[in-house]
Amino acid sequence: MTYVVGENCIKCKYTDCVDVCPVDCFHEGPNFLVIDPDECIDCTLCEPECPANAIFAEDDLPDDQQQFLELNAELAKAWPVISEVKPAPADADEWNGKPDKLQYLQRK
After folding, report:
1. Is residue 97 part of a domain?
2. 4: which strand partners?
3. Structurally, how many domains does the chain consist of?
4. How many angstroms from the chain centroid is the CA of residue 1?
C-alpha cells in the first residue's frame, strides 16, 4: 500500500510532510506535491503532518479522488524529489479547502 497526495494540495503545497518522510518519496511540481508509490514505505508519518489534510492511505482515498493514485505515480517519475521544507505559497491558506482544484494543476 502507498500514501497518496490528493486534490487539496493543489495550490496549497505545504511541505510539512516532506520533513518527516524517512525515504524521501515526495516529489515537487510547480503547485503540487506527489508521493512516489514505489518509494513509499507506508510509515504513516506524513498524513498527520499535512495542514491541508490532502494525504490519504491508498485504501482510504475518497472515491472522487481515485484518479490521484495514478496521477501521483505518473508525476513522481517526472518531478524532482523534495526532502526539505519550503515556504508554502503566499496564497496557500486561501486555496486550502477550495473544491475542484484539479483544473489548476501545473504539470511543468
Report:
1. no
2. 56
3. 1
4. 16
